[in-house]
Design brief:
The protein has 294 residues and is an alpha/beta fold. It has 2 domains: 86 residues, Rossmann fold (3-Layer(aba) Sandwich); 135 residues, Rossmann fold (3-Layer(aba) Sandwich), CATH 3.40.50. The strands form 3 sheets. Strands 1-11-8-7-5-6 form a 6-stranded parallel beta sheet.
């Protein structure tokens, strides 16, 4: 079993980006600028956005954090997004999800300028991705592809089973693993809560990508020998014995599944750090595009 070490690879990517940014500074060019909008005080979201800001500092990006109260109206948020769309100093920005119930998430995602949509959630970017055109790939699927590539995991002709059909991970992952090229060229089955005989389908998989958010859902008896296991799930499980009052659990029963897998991602330290690294990569790409268009 080989660990797909997202922490290690994400640090390599950040180092590569930092070198690019240093070269931009030497040439007297403007460095990439990433903005993040967060509405409310969700603990996990605040932690995640905080780590994005720190990562920007590390690679030499400029960053702006916009914190809005949980009572922010949809109109107020849409106005803020339009400000960011029109601000030439900002190369890319993200709106941290989930949003409060009074705000229509789809309306928000549609308002983001596709050229600044470094999360890759805008329908235009999603459509380009589905058509194999150059675009921003959503950061988590992009991170998974990068892990597979850097560890030389063979995907061609393999049976990939994706568990979960979210627009953020499951659905884009199913498209990307079936695309021409590498990583890709696999035969994909997309499973979800309504799938019949899901255990039987998973047991036939060469590559399993689980993005359910159900702690320890994937057991060793569901996985065939030498399968590649990518655990996207990350859930805060309450535990009073821990200092924080919780521990982080993935979708995979790591202790037992790791004994059968050929490659496996840990939680934490697997897909999570890769998501932030690829967000930075998308922001660098956005900066380069804006430079070309001027």
């Amino acid at each position: 079993m080989e660990l797909l070490d997202g922490k290690k690879i994400s640090n390599q990517i950040k180092d590569e980006i930092a070198i690019e940014v240093a070269k931009m500074k030497e040439r007297g060019e403007k460095v990439p600028h990433l903005a993040a909008v967060i509405v409310g005080n969700d603990g996990a979201s605040l932690t995640y956005v905080g780590s994005k800001v720190k990562s920007c500092e590390r690679v030499g990006f400029e960053s702006t954090l916009i914190q809005l109260p949980a009572t922010t109206s949809e109109v107020e948020l849409l106005n803020k997004i339009e400000e960011l769309n029109d601000n030439d100093d900002i190369d890319g920005f993200i709106v941290q999800l989930p949003l409060p119930p009074q705000i229509d998430t789809q309306k928000v995602l549609l308002t983001v300028n596709p050229d600044k949509d470094v999360d890759g959630f805008h329908p235009m970017n999603f459509g380009k991705m589905a058509l194999d055109m150059s675009t921003f790939i959503p950061a988590t699927p992009f991170g998974i592809l990068e892990l597979l590539e850097r560890y030389n995991v063979e995907t061609q002709g393999k049976h990939t089973v994706v568990i979960g059909r979210s627009h953020i991970v499951g659905r884009p992952m199913s498209i990307l693993m079936g695309r021409k090229g590498w990583p890709g060229n696999s035969t994909v089955t997309l499973t979800h809560s309504r799938t019949k005989n899901i255990t039987q389908i998973i047991s036939q998989a060469d590559i399993i990508i689980s993005a359910l958010g159900i702690p320890n859902f994937l057991k060793a008896e569901m996985v065939k020998d030498d399968a590649v296991v990518i655990d996207v799930g990350i859930t805060r499980v309450p535990d009073e014995t821990k200092k924080r009052g919780y521990y982080l659990a993935g979708d995979v029963d790591f202790e037992n599944v790791s004994k059968k897998a050929s490659f496996i991602t840990p939680v934490p330290g697997g897909v999570g750090p890769m998501t932030i690294a690829m967000l930075l990569k998308n922001t660098l790409l956005a900066r380069e595009r804006h430079k070309e268009n001027r």
